[in-house]
Amino acid sequence: MADPEPQEDAAPRRCANPDCQVAVDGRCIEGFPGTAECPQFGRIRIVPVAPAPSTYPAPRNGLALQASTTFSVDEADDVVKQRPSCVIAIAGPQSAGKTSLIAGLYDLFLLGQVGKVVFGQSFSLHAFEQAAHYSRAASRRTTPSTPRTERGEVRFYHLELVDTDSGAMLSVLLGDRAGEEYLETRSNPLSAKEFPELRRADVMTLLVDGERLLDAGQRHNLRSEVRQMLHAFVEAGAVRPTQRLALVLTKLDVIRKAADGGQRTFQVFDTLVAGLRTDYGSNFGAVESFQIAAQPRTDGAKSGENLDRLLAYWMVEPLRYRPGPMVFEVPEAERYFDRLMPVPKVVL
Amino acid sequence: MSKHSVVAMGLPGSGKTTFLAALWHLVSEKEVPCKLTYVSLQTTNIEHLHQIASQWRAAKKQERTAQGGDKLVSMILKTEGGDPQTVTFPDIAGEAFLQMWGLRECDETVAGWLKEPGVLLFIHADKVTAPKWVVEEKLLMEDMGIPVKDEAEAEEVVDWSPDLAPTQVQLVDLLQSMQAEPLDVGPRRLAIILSAWDKAAGRGLSPEQHLTRRMPLLDQFLKHGLNRDWEVRIYGVSAQGGDYDDDKTKLPAAERLREIDVPSERISIVYAGVESNDLTEPLQWLLT
């Protein structure tokens, strides 16, 4: 299991990235010129966690039951082929709150329906429980936390949800990938092409870390990271016009605790959204912005505040299901006769 | 004579054995009218039934069913004017169901029993582990003026393990497993038994309302995630009637229960707003 995501406290200052020894040797593994520019340095502390010991007896002639974990790309593809579904890519730099968003949404369903959406089933219950564990009292932590998503292939959390208005059941697949990998697309835009969750997404959800946007020392870098990431996704051809974009300001509780009640931060976010809408809006079927507190650490917001609005946006019928005109391409062929047979253009 | 089987599921301490003990007393002693009556002493594992019913009559807590000590008991019962039916009722240790949730596997023998079309799912109405959040506890302590330790001073962090999951999550998973390979057998009837109902009844809620209030995820699953060809009923059952003695302690409440002349009158079952002593009612529904 992954380590818990680091939390802010007064512990000795060092980097959240366990591979980075900048506090010891002064060398930033991410290449930032100083610790002031690094979004991970200083405010956080790593809590190493050993793998959970099993409290169960050894298996006795057991029949294997369906797994209860996240899905691989192939498993997610099978779901998409078999039933109405929506794929949600949740992108953002590390610590933006991707896993907190997933765990916070799951926690809301433990308490009842979320807006007009009710829980049906999930084949990822173990994975959801692990994601939520360090925010639960059973972990004996005194500050909530979420596990770090480790580098590697994207994994999908699975939910079957029902829209109470239409009665339609939709398989919702929430893509989770390490934030570092999304950030690296700024230097290597073509790497975004290798992220299947982006190409398959019905809703691309880009998280903007509210805590960093509040911090004048980090604000400008964060805006640049978000803009460049989105640019990289577009440049890599990972964006399709049937996708919707959700721009999500996270950690609303921390923002509201600012001296000005977060006014300045909200203005900065609105300006960022307006700029992204102008520059990249035409690449998407729709663009919406949200302000959420998935797993607040203070009383500045309710648990899961505004997740109902975001979920409703995710649950709108994916645009790929709407019939549209077929686009044909004239094949490049030597014989003129062969060029008379246009072929449908496949958009992946 | 037809044969029917009912499987009883439930996490440890959910009241499966107590229900079976009270059921055996009820059908064998015939102290109160029941929908099902017993016909013959030709039962499987009758010693086990005698033993647990004896504990029940003495108002003493049942010993926990040990894993690997699962008992398959059967009774020959009949409805009024109906043919006798052999009703098989495996008394499975709750740990077998923890294993299904935690290890994603099911003992082959237990799996065979779990393929029955009639399912009793036991949930202790007063011992539902609900999720609690760090931030809520922290804010509550701050409100009460109790100093909150920082992470460095706090107790050692507890890593995740499946048994820390809320009760309702484990139950949703068990039911999902029952409608997926290798346990799927198509349509079933599911009788949810909220045991120790005497502990919850004081809140003035019906069994359905109690389940909705205490286990909202399970409630959503039953309404939207369970296969539509499953039928569900929710019962509130007090098979003990109150607290029983354990090995070391004698309780006044248990003494009061022993004073009741007709032990079957300790039993209470609530369904659709009607209360009775007839524990065979859910069985009869599952068997029809």
- How many helices of chain B? 11
Strand order of the largest sheet of chain B: 2-3-4-1-6-7-8-9-10
Average pLDDT across residues of chain A?
85
The 3D shape of chain A can be described as globular
Rg of Cα set of chain B: 20 Å
What is the terminal-to-terminal distance of chain B? 15 Å
- Which strand-content bin applies to the residues of chain A? 15-25%
Low-confidence stretches of chain B: none
Low-confidence parts of chain A, pLDDT < 50 over ≥5 residues? 5-11, 43-56
Largest protein interface?
A-B, 65 and 59 residues
Helical proportion of chain B, percent range: 25-40%
> What is the string of helix and strand elements of chain B?
EHEHEEHEHEHHEHHHEHEEH
How many DSSP-defined strands of chain B?
Answer: 10
* Beta-strand percentage range of chain B: 15-25%
Number of helices, counting only DSSP H or I runs of 4 residues or more of chain A: 11
Distance between the termini of chain A: 32 Å
